[in-house]
Protein backbone atom coordinates (compact mmCIF):
# COMPACT_ATOMS: atom_id res chain seq x y z
CA UNK A 1 0.00 0.00 0.00
CA UNK A 2 1.41 3.34 -1.06
CA UNK A 3 0.37 6.39 0.90
CA UNK A 4 -0.48 9.47 -1.13
CA UNK A 5 -0.30 12.94 0.34
CA UNK A 6 -3.78 14.40 -0.04
CA UNK A 7 -3.20 17.69 1.76
CA UNK A 8 0.21 19.32 1.52
CA UNK A 9 -0.85 22.11 3.87
CA UNK A 10 -1.43 19.57 6.64
CA UNK A 11 1.84 17.83 5.78
CA UNK A 12 3.78 21.10 6.15
CA UNK A 13 1.84 21.98 9.32
CA UNK A 14 2.70 18.55 10.74
CA UNK A 15 6.40 18.91 9.99
CA UNK A 16 6.39 22.42 11.46
CA UNK A 17 4.61 21.24 14.62
CA UNK A 18 7.18 18.50 15.13
CA UNK A 19 9.96 21.03 14.56
CA UNK A 20 8.27 23.34 17.10
CA UNK A 21 8.18 20.46 19.60
CA UNK A 22 11.88 19.75 19.13
CA UNK A 23 12.94 23.40 19.38
CA UNK A 24 10.64 24.02 22.35
CA UNK A 25 12.12 21.06 24.24
CA UNK A 26 15.66 22.04 23.27
CA UNK A 27 15.17 25.68 24.31
CA UNK A 28 13.64 24.58 27.60
CA UNK A 29 16.36 22.10 28.45
CA UNK A 30 19.25 24.33 27.42
CA UNK A 31 18.12 27.81 28.40
CA UNK A 32 14.88 28.32 30.24
CA UNK A 33 14.50 25.45 32.71
CA UNK A 34 18.07 25.61 34.09
CA UNK A 35 17.43 29.18 35.23
CA UNK A 36 14.73 27.84 37.56
CA UNK A 37 17.41 26.15 39.65
CA UNK A 38 18.29 29.35 41.46
CA UNK A 39 17.62 29.17 45.20
CA UNK A 40 15.04 31.99 45.21
CA UNK A 41 12.61 29.99 43.04
CA UNK A 42 10.51 27.58 45.12
CA UNK A 43 10.37 23.90 44.24
CA UNK A 44 6.62 24.20 43.63
CA UNK A 45 7.18 26.97 41.08
CA UNK A 46 9.97 24.99 39.41
CA UNK A 47 7.71 21.93 39.18
CA UNK A 48 4.75 23.80 37.71
CA UNK A 49 6.88 25.69 35.21
CA UNK A 50 8.67 22.50 34.15
CA UNK A 51 5.55 20.42 33.58
CA UNK A 52 3.74 23.26 31.77
CA UNK A 53 6.80 23.61 29.53
CA UNK A 54 6.71 19.90 28.74
CA UNK A 55 2.93 19.92 28.19
CA UNK A 56 3.41 22.48 25.42
CA UNK A 57 6.21 20.39 23.93
CA UNK A 58 4.01 17.27 24.00
CA UNK A 59 1.06 19.18 22.57
CA UNK A 60 3.20 20.35 19.64
CA UNK A 61 4.37 16.78 19.05
CA UNK A 62 0.82 15.36 19.14
CA UNK A 63 -0.39 18.09 16.77
CA UNK A 64 2.48 17.27 14.42
CA UNK A 65 1.69 13.56 14.39
CA UNK A 66 -2.03 14.29 13.91
CA UNK A 67 -1.41 16.62 10.97
CA UNK A 68 0.95 14.12 9.36
CA UNK A 69 -1.78 11.46 9.55
CA UNK A 70 -4.40 13.95 8.39
CA UNK A 71 -2.28 14.86 5.35
CA UNK A 72 -2.82 11.32 4.00
CA UNK A 73 -6.54 11.13 4.81
CA UNK A 74 -8.78 10.88 1.74
CA UNK A 75 -11.93 12.41 3.26
CA UNK A 76 -11.26 16.05 4.22
CA UNK A 77 -14.73 16.52 5.67
CA UNK A 78 -14.04 13.85 8.30
CA UNK A 79 -10.96 15.60 9.68
CA UNK A 80 -11.93 19.25 9.23
CA UNK A 81 -13.37 19.57 12.76
CA UNK A 82 -10.13 18.30 14.32
CA UNK A 83 -8.15 20.85 12.29
CA UNK A 84 -10.46 23.67 13.39
CA UNK A 85 -10.19 22.60 17.05
CA UNK A 86 -6.39 22.62 16.85
CA UNK A 87 -6.57 26.03 15.13
CA UNK A 88 -8.70 27.34 18.00
CA UNK A 89 -6.16 26.05 20.54
CA UNK A 90 -3.33 27.77 18.67
CA UNK A 91 -5.22 31.06 18.43
CA UNK A 92 -5.95 30.92 22.17
CA UNK A 93 -2.27 30.16 22.76
CA UNK A 94 -1.30 33.27 20.79
CA UNK A 95 -3.83 35.41 22.68
CA UNK A 96 -2.44 34.13 26.00
CA UNK A 97 1.15 34.80 24.94
CA UNK A 98 0.38 38.34 23.82
CA UNK A 99 -2.05 39.08 26.66
CA UNK A 100 0.18 37.89 29.49
CA UNK A 101 3.19 39.63 27.97
CA UNK A 102 1.24 42.89 27.60
CA UNK A 103 -0.03 42.67 31.18
CA UNK A 104 3.32 41.89 32.77
CA UNK A 105 5.69 43.88 30.56
CA UNK A 106 4.30 45.62 27.49
CA UNK A 107 7.83 46.55 26.41
CA UNK A 108 8.54 42.82 25.95
CA UNK A 109 5.89 42.42 23.22
CA UNK A 110 8.52 42.67 20.43
CA UNK A 111 10.21 39.64 22.02
CA UNK A 112 7.12 37.59 21.16
CA UNK A 113 7.38 38.36 17.44
CA UNK A 114 9.04 35.05 16.45
CA UNK A 115 6.46 32.99 18.35
CA UNK A 116 3.64 35.13 16.97
CA UNK A 117 4.83 34.82 13.38
CA UNK A 118 5.27 31.05 13.77
CA UNK A 119 1.76 30.60 15.18
CA UNK A 120 0.19 32.83 12.49
CA UNK A 121 2.02 30.90 9.74
CA UNK A 122 1.00 27.58 11.32
CA UNK A 123 -2.67 28.65 11.64
CA UNK A 124 -2.65 29.96 8.06
CA UNK A 125 -1.42 26.60 6.75
CA UNK A 126 -4.11 24.77 8.71
CA UNK A 127 -6.86 27.08 7.46
CA UNK A 128 -5.64 26.65 3.89
CA UNK A 129 -5.70 22.90 4.48
CA UNK A 130 -9.28 23.00 5.73
CA UNK A 131 -10.36 24.84 2.59
CA UNK A 132 -9.11 22.11 0.27
CA UNK A 133 -11.77 20.08 -1.48
CA UNK A 134 -11.61 16.33 -2.02
CA UNK A 135 -9.69 15.62 -5.21
CA UNK A 136 -11.08 13.24 -7.80
CA UNK A 137 -8.87 10.25 -8.32
Notes on the protein architecture:
The chain is an all-alpha fold and 137 residues long. The protein has one domain. Helices cover 74% and strands 0% of the residues. It contains 4 helices and no strands. Helix 1 (8-32) runs antiparallel to helix 2 (43-71), helix 1 runs antiparallel to helix 4 (113-130) and helix 3 runs antiparallel to helix 4. The chain starts with 7 loop residues before the first helix and ends in a 7-residue tail after the last helix. 18% of the residues are buried. The model has no long low-confidence stretch (mean pLDDT 92).
Proportion of helical residues: over 70%
What's the SSE pattern? HHHH
Mean pLDDT: 92
Total helical segments: 4
User: How would you classify the helix and strand content by structural class?
Assistant: mainly alpha
Shape: elongated
The total beta strand count reads 0
- The fraction of residues assigned to DSSP E strands is under 5%
Largest sheet: none
Distance between the termini: 16 Å
How many independent structural domains? 1
List low-pLDDT spans: none
* Rg value: 18 Å
Amino acid sequence: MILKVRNFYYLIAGVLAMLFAITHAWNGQSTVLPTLGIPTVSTDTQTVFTYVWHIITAENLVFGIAFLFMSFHSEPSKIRLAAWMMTAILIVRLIVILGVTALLDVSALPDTSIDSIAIVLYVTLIILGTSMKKTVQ
